């Protein structure tokens, strides 16, 4: 199953992939089972050894796609919406989309009146009437994004709570979305953490699959790294974001009833609050990890994730562990300090795979040259950059046993942040 993103020309471009690939042709099959060399050149410097190792993995595993990914949003979260200030009638059958589908035999348009009963307090099941009311009948004015799962709307519940309402696209449901939907709900409904997007509930009715989650108002990390709002995210804020994400993943790996592996850690799944704190979203690919007591290892029948963030060891072995998230997190750290996407297909060959390029510069003693050009090349930034890259290197080690656990990542980042703060007091 491929997520459908839109490239700059508006064409759907796959950037998320499943291996084994679906029968449909895709350049992403080049990521597949080609074994990668883990035999890095021995080095006395473990950091440099890891760098060589990871560079080898990138060479072996990644053939960048022809098209650069693909940032797309049909409308930005920054656009927000003032549609809630309107007092228009939300029951309105006058909505044009609604009008077009009025004859549909199944789904919400045929069942709106079946589910007008009130939701029981505390229930996570929403009614169709509530969803319609919250989104003003899925008003295009309230659309805040589009992802592999479907369309995301900003909504407001009866009690005034702002929510993001994720409506699965029909094609996804046809492709056996059932499992993924339930997975997302199962994972989301059991967890609660300041740095995780809270799940309020869901609706499963006819062809409709809708998830209601906390609305996070300030766009995605990827949007901030691209300065969509005109402001450059400072290195201090980037460190805070990294710490928040590390805490969120630590919680998923360690403190839930069963370990949860997110499987799709990436900058477009990290949402920012107005105070620029991070909340990790999109558990569409989350799966409950093996029960620690049973000692079983989760073996996937399909490799899922997003190009550029995917753990090569998982790709090779189909064995999913928490360390696959650690790998993706390492890629995210590189993204945070460089500002670049993990794969930048329009750049010259040696710079296309951002982590490989960054690690090479780092081991050549030229880390500062990879710092996001929008950030000042100060001593404080240079020092923090090197420490962050050192951690990133460990996270993207080719063998999972050489990667730190996420809790350790949080601790290291916390210390980097502390040292960084001290420079400014
Ligand atoms: N909880 C939320 N609060 C505010 N905006 C959100 C929320 N969830 C998603 N969005 C917006 O909707 C967009 C699409 O989100 P979604 O999670 O469906 O897809 P994605 O993660 O960007 O892509 P994919 O699903 O293909 O990985 C996001 O990029 C963001 O702009």
TrEMBL record:
It catalyses: L-seryl-[protein] + ATP = O-phospho-L-seryl-[protein] + ADP + H(+); L-threonyl-[protein] + ATP = O-phospho-L-threonyl-[protein] + ADP + H(+). Residues 138-424 form the Protein kinase domain. It comes from the Eukaryota. SMART domains: S_TKc. The keyword Membrane does not apply. InterPro entries: Kinase-like_dom_sf, Prot_kinase_dom, Protein_kinase_ATP_BS, Ser/Thr_kinase_AS. Keywords: ATP-binding, Kinase, Nucleotide-binding, Serine/threonine-protein kinase, Transferase. ATP binds at residue 170. Residues 1-50, 66-119 are annotated as: Disordered. Pfam families: Pkinase. Its EC number is 2.7.11.1. One of its GO terms (molecular function) is ATP binding. Residues 25-43, 75-96 have a biased composition (Low complexity). The keyword Cell inner membrane does not apply. SUPFAM superfamilies: Protein kinase-like (PK-like). Belongs to the protein kinase superfamily. This is non-specific serine/threonine protein kinase. It comes from Centaurea solstitialis (yellow star-thistle).
């Amino acid at each position: 199953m491929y997520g459908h993103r839109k490239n700059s020309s508006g064409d759907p471009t796959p950037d998320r992939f499943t291996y084994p690939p679906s029968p449909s042709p895709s350049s992403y099959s080049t990521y597949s089972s080609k074994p990668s060399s883990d035999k890095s050149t021995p080095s006395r410097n473990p950091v440099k050894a890891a760098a060589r190792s990871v560079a080898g993995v990138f060479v072996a595993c990644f053939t960048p796609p022809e098209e650069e990914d693909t940032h797309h949003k049909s409308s930005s979260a920054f656009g927000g919406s003032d549609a809630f200030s309107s007092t228009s009638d939300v029951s309105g059958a006058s909505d044009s989309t609604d009008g077009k589908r009025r004859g549909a035999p199944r789904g919400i348009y045929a069942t709106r009146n079946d589910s007008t009963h009130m939701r029981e307090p505390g229930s996570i099941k929403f009614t169709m009437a509530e969803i319609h009311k919250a989104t003003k009948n899925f008003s295009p004015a309230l659309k805040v994004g589009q992802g592999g799962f479907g369309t995301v709307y900003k909504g407001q519940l009866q009690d005034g709570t702002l929510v993001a309402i994720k409506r699965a696209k029909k094609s996804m449901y046809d492709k056996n979305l059932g499992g993924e939907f339930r997975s997302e709900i199962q994972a989301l409904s059991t967890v609660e953490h300041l740095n995780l997007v809270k799940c309020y509930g869901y609706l499963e009715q006819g062809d409709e699959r809708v998830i209601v989650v906390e609305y996070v108002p300030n766009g995605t990390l990827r949007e901030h790294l691209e300065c969509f709002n005109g402001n450059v995210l400072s290195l201090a804020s980037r460190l805070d974001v990294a710490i928040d994400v590390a805490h969120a993943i630590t919680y998923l790996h360690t403190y839930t009833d069963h370990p949860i592996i997110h499987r799709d850690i990436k900058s477009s799944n990290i949402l920012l609050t107005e105070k620029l704190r991070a909340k990790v979203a999109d558990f569409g690919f989350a799966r409950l990890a093996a029960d620690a007591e049973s000692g079983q290892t989760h073996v996937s029948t399909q490799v899922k994730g997003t190009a550029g963030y995917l753990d090569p060891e998982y790709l090779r072995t189909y064995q999913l562990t928490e360390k696959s998230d650690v790998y993706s997190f390492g890629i995210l750290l590189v993204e945070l300090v460089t500002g670049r996407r993990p794969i930048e297909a329009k750049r010259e060959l040696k710079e296309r795979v951002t982590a490989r390029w960054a690690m090479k510069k780092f081991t050549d003693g030229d880390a500062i040259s990879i710092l996001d050009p929008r950030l000042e090349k100060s001593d404080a930034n240079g020092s923090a950059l090197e420490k962050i890259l050192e951690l990133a290197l460990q996270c993207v080690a080719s063998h999972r046993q050489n990667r730190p656990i996420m809790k350790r990542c949080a601790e290291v980042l916390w210390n980097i942040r502390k040292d960084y703060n001290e420079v400014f007091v």
